[in-house]
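Hello Y.,

Per our agreement to keep a running log of every chain we model this quarter, I'm adding this entry. I've kept the format consistent with earlier entries: sequence first, then predicted structure.
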Amino acid sequence: MTAAALDLSVGAALVLDEDEWQVERREPHTGRVHLVGHDGSRQCLTFRFLANHPRCRSSSRTIASGADRGRQPKSAGDLKPTQLELARLRFAHLMEINTGFRSGGPLKPGPGEPKPEYAPDTTTVTERRLAKVAELKAMNRQEAKLLALDKVSLSTLIRWERARRKDGLVGCADERWLRESGGHPSITAEVREAIHAVRQETLHGTKVSMRTRERKIRQYVREQFGDEVHVPSYPVLRRVWIEWFGSGRQRQRYARSAELPTQGGHVLIDRPGQVVALDTTVLPVMVRESVFGDAVKVHLTLALDVYTHSICAFRLTLVSHTSVDVAMLLRDVMLPLPMRDDWDEEMEWPYPGLPAAVVAEFAGHEVAGLPFFAPETVTTDHGSVYRNHHLVQVQQRLGCNILPARILRPTDKQAVERVFGSVRSLLFEQLPGYTGIDAADRGADPEGDAVLTIAEMEHLIATWVVGIWQTRRLGESAPHWDPGGDHSPNSLIAAAFDQGGFALEIPSPELYYEILPEHAVRKIDERHGVKIRGLWYDGPALAPYRGQRSSRGGTRQTKWIVHREPRDRRTVFFQDPLTHAWHPLRWTGLPPDGVVPAFGDKRVTELLQHVEQAGLRPRTDAGLLPHLLELMRAIHPVGRWRTRLTKSQRVEIAREREMGRTAAADRPTTSSPRNPSERPSSREHPVVATDTERRRKREAAVVGLLEPPPRLGEEVRRRNLFVLPPADDTETAR
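Predicted structure for the entry above:
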């Protein structure tokens, strides 16, 4: 099949990158074409560029209205087998006219080809077309009629040739073969309304047969419109039902979920990072928390690259996870995993084409054998932690597309579900404290068997993922281009790097602050600073802006933006509008030299409720500190000893401590970016580092502000062209 030709004649219109251009003139000797836009802009492009551009096509204004207007383009798959053979026969006759060979070239000549009347060296195209008309007229009339060649004239051959140049093989097909479908004339507006009403009724109820649907359709028409409205027969209704709603072989609950507004389409995954699936499950192993040493359950959240089945990142959270934990998990997907002290060289960055030394230079540390990239699409289930506004904003900040799975459709993220099962059978079942998936199959005392702490479990899973999972044979999850090959997640990553390259983009440490929840503050108080969810925060960074309003525009104009860490409410973070440096703001209720354990949003809510119920109104937040310590069990009377606390209370305290440690680990070591005059760090992106270094050299070489150079021809514009220049200028010019 020949590709459709692009019309580049003078005056023709074409669409390039969704903008319409008109061909002004062509230069065949240089292979260039000049285009002009609606606004008068011009550009000169090569024929090769336009022919290979994926978003360049002929404008519909230059195409005559025909059978394809208002419909998708026709293709050879629309033809029946007999019609396809006739189109190929016509195509062969046109090739014989153009080249002298029915195959289209001299590499596969037929018997006696080229014939003298079709030799391209001694005949013209018009002579060959007239010879073809005479040849077809000499055929037996019955055979020519069966081949649809009985009424071929010179104009018919010209029309076929134009259609062939435009649409290829399908251009040789008769337009009557692909005429617009007439639909079902017997399906009137009344019958259509009845079909859709029965569809909604049967979709809500239990699955029924097509005969029952037909009776309901007839009942609806008779009761709503009377007996004078004709209802088609059962075969017609059945055929229309299948065309409109499918065969109906799926399960009834899946058919209902497919009709919901959240339904999605099929996604073809062909590269790493294109789709990253997130899901959370309860870890089937009891671990011990680090405060009281009790055996507890933790939640495991995985980020899986669907194309390579690589476990890009994971998080262990005590009791439950929040949107901040998932946001930090997405941040972990974009960051290279550092090597740990007990890991050997086999677990270092193994991918060819990108040396480990180069990655380590930009990351600032030795990198383990786990891919990192910016995810393009993130698919999740419909849990509240994945659908809240904060996580949606985080994904938009990272440039990810949100693709939630359809309700009651586990196949939309079956890859991550299967990974949970594989990790359970390959790793978790071997560990002490394994609880299984069913309480009836649980051991006698899994809590007593638990020996691993949360930190030890996290280290064990990380070691297993890098050392075993990434090098494990995929089996039936092999890629489509080599289903029988021996592939692992690491080998697929290496193949993708070899095919499409690798974008070495490491996000800056300031990304931690940017993905924290934002709060808009109208004014910075002179004495107390800023108030975030009931608590006042202050710091030296607010001194230049006290009593002032922000210069921000838009919907949050004149407001200051402060970022809150929900896991550790002792500090919030403020970005200086001049230097863009991030500064922590301490809670004003903290003692100047004392150490207060970390506390989160839940503890602050309990504190404010406790103070309100007690009828207290402290003047400053320092008066809230004793009540906070009382709620946190930081004061230990006899009634709050470990043996007198319930397990749920101990787990709550341990969860608060664990969240504080996790927040401290996620926080970058430096809270403010480097001064622009300093040399760039190897952790930055190479383009950013190069631009920063060039800016530093320019600022060091020039003192004061640089004046822009005058425009080209500015001196000529300022003086009269007909006045001779002064004698000094003439001598200078000489």
